[in-house]
Automatic annotation (TrEMBL):
GO molecular function terms noted in the UniProt entry: ATP binding; cAMP-dependent protein kinase activity
Protein kinase domain mapped to chain residues: 81-343
Record's keyword terms, sorted: ATP-binding, Kinase, Nucleotide-binding, Serine/threonine-protein kinase, Transferase
Region span, Disordered: 24-68
Pfam families per UniProt: Pkinase
Highest taxon in the source lineage: Eukaryota
Name of the protein in question: cAMP-dependent protein kinase
Reactions accelerated catalytically: L-threonyl-[protein] + ATP = O-phospho-L-threonyl-[protein] + ADP + H(+); L-seryl-[protein] + ATP = O-phospho-L-seryl-[protein] + ADP + H(+)
GO cellular component, one term: cytosol
Amino-acid positions noted as binding ATP in the UniProt annotation, renumbered to this chain: K118
Biased composition (Low complexity): 32-50
CDD domains in UniProt: STKc_PKA_like (cd05580)
Domain AGC-kinase C-terminal: 344-414
C-alpha cells in the first residue's frame, strides 16, 4: 500500500493494511527486469504525441457533501474494540486488526466482528504538514461507496491519535501476490485491471481523482476481487490541480512538470500498473526519483516480447503525454478504455456484481485470519491513550486523566 519509493510531496498518507513504508522515503523495493531481459529482448516504445495544449471539456459536478461518521454517534467507542495484531506500520502510525466484542447494547451482534483500525499520530501528521491529506482521505472514504473500494465505517480520536475503522480485507496486498508470481498472465492482469477501471470510472464521474494507484494500494478480498485503499492523495478536482504527490514510478508527466493535472493522471497510472502486472516491474524505474522522472518525461520504455500486441497497444495509448490522445481522457472517458480490444469478452456488469470468479482466492481460516499479511511487533497500548483509558475503566473501574489535545481542532470531522 505504501512503498515503491517515497510518496512525492510528503510520504503517502494512507497507511493501508499491509506492509507499509517504515519511514519517509523508504518503501518496498521495485525491481527492474532481470539481467536476461535486456534491450535486445524488448521492443522499444515511446510516447509518440506532443505535449497537450488542451483537455476535453468537463461536465459540472458538485463538491461531495461532508459526512460525519463519528463512532460515538453510532453508539461505539474505542473501548468496544480489542486491538489485536499489527497489520502494518508507517510514517504516521500503524494499522491494527480490531475485534468488536459482543455487547448487550448490540443485541443483533451474536459474534465478534473484525475490522482494520487505522491509527494516525496527530503530532506526526501536523509536523509533516499532512493535515489536509488526512482530512481529505476521511472525507473521500465517507463519501464513496463502491464494491471495489474499502469501506470506512466510522472514526474516533483521542489526544494523541486519529482512528479510522475500516473493513478488514483478508487477502492482503496485490503487491505480495504479484511478487510471488513474478508476473501475471494476460487473463489475470485483465481481471484486476478491469476491477480498477470500474473504480476510476466511478470516482471520475464525481470529479474525484485518486492519484496513488499501485499494487501496494490494492487489496484482495475474500472473493478475490480488488479493494482499493489509501485515499490520502484523493481529491475533488473539477478542473485541474497542481499538487506534486504520488509514487515516483507512477507519476504522469503533467504532475512532474507541474503544468496542472486531473483525472488523466489516473489513466496514465493505470498504464503503468498494467505494464507492471504483465512484466513484473514498472516501465520507468531507477535508483532515485530524479532519474525516474527523466525517464518518464523522455517517454521511452521497453516492452517485453511476451506481452501481446493488444496489451502493448493499450499500454501505449495510456502512456502518452498528449492529454488529447490519452485513452480514458477522451470524449468517451472510461468507456473508451473498456472498449479497447484487449478487454473483448469482459462482462462489465457481471464483474461489477462480483459474479465473475477471481483468479486468486485467498486462503483464510477464520474472519480474523492475518496469514496473508506480514508479521509486525505488537503495538504498545500506552501509545493508544483512548484505548488504555477504556481498558482501565473496564478492568479496574477507573481511567487515567485525559491529556492535552493541542491538535484536535485541526480534525473537526473525526
Amino acid at each position: 500500500m505504501v512503498g515503491a519509493g517515497a510518496g512525492v510531496g510528503g510520504p503517502t498518507v494512507g497507511l493501508g493494511f499491509g506492509a507499509l513504508a517504515a519511514a519517509e522515503g523508504k518503501g518496498k523495493e521495485r525491481q527492474g527486469p532481470s539481467p536476461g531481459a535486456s534491450a535486445g529482448a524488448a521492443d522499444r516504445v515511446g510516447a509518440r504525441a506532443s505535449p497537450a495544449e488542451r483537455e476535453p471539456p468537463r461536465r459540472q459536478t458538485v463538491r461531495p457533501a461532508e459526512f460525519r461518521r463519528r463512532g460515538e454517534e453510532l453508539g461505539l467507542s474505542l473501548g468496544d474494540f480489542d486491538m489485536l495484531d499489527t497489520l502494518g506500520t508507517g510514517t504516521f502510525g500503524r494499522v491494527l486488526l480490531a475485534r468488536l466484542r459482543t455487547s448487550p447494547n448490540r443485541p443483533n451482534q451474536t459474534q465478534p466482528h473484525y475490522f482494520a483500525m487505522k491509527v494516525l499520530e496527530k503530532n506526526t501528521v501536523v509536523r509533516l504538514r499532512q493535515v489536509e491529506h488526512v482530512n481529505s482521505e476521511r472525507s473521500t472514504l465517507a463519501h464513496v461507496r463502491h464494491p471495489f473500494v474499502v469501506n470506512l465505517f466510522c472514526t474516533f480520536q483521542d489526544e494523541a491519535n486519529l482512528y479510522m475503522l475500516l473493513e478488514y480485507v483478508q487477502g492482503g496486498e496485490l503487491f505480495s501476490h504479484l511478487r510471488r508470481a513474478q508476473r501475471f498472465s494476460a487473463d489475470v492482469a485483465r481481471f484486476y485491471t478491469a476491477n480498477i477501471i470500474l473504480v476510476l470510472e466511478n470516482l471520475h464521474a464525481q470529479d474525484i481523482i485518486y492519484r496513488d494507484l499501485k499494487p501496494e494500494n490494492l487489496l484482495i478480498d475474500s472473493t478475490g476481487h480488488i479493494k482499493v485503499t489509501d485515499f490520502g492523495f484523493a481529491k475533488y478536482v473539477p478542473e485541474r490541480t497542481w499538487t506534486l504527490c504520488g509514487t515516483p514510478e507512477y507519476l504522469a508527466p503533467e504532475i512532474i512538470t507541474a503544468t496542472g493535472h486531473g483525472a488523466a493522471a489516473d489513466w496514465w497510472a493505470l498504464g503503468v500498473l498494467l505494464f507492471e502486472l504483465l512484466a513484473g516491474y514498472p516501465p520507468f524505474f531507477a535508483d532515485n526519483p530524479l532519474e525516474i522522472y527523466e525517464k518518464i518525461l523522455a517517454g521511452r520504455y521497453g516492452v517485453p516480447r511476451h506481452i501481446d500486441p493488444l496489451a502493448k497497444d493499450l499500454i501505449g495509448r495510456l502512456l502518452t503525454d498528449d492529454l488529447t490522445k490519452r485513452l480514458g481522457n477522451l470524449k468517451g472517458g472510461a468507456q473508451d478504455v473498456k472498449n479497447h480490444p484487449w478487454f473483448e469478452g469482459v462482462d462489465w456488469e457481471s464483474l461489477a456484481r462480483k459474479e465473475i470468479r477471481a483468479p486468486i482466492i485467498p486462503m483464510t481460516i477464520n474472519p480474523g485470519d492475518v496469514s496473508n499479511y506480514e508479521r509486525y511487533p505488537a503495538t504498545a497500548i500506552e501509545t493508544l491513550p483512548g484505548v488504555l483509558r477504556a481498558i482501565s475503566q473496564r478492568k479496574y473501574g477507573f481511567s487515567p486523566e485525559k491529556g492535552p489535545d493541542p491538535y484536535g481542532y485541526l480534525f473537526p470531522l473525526f
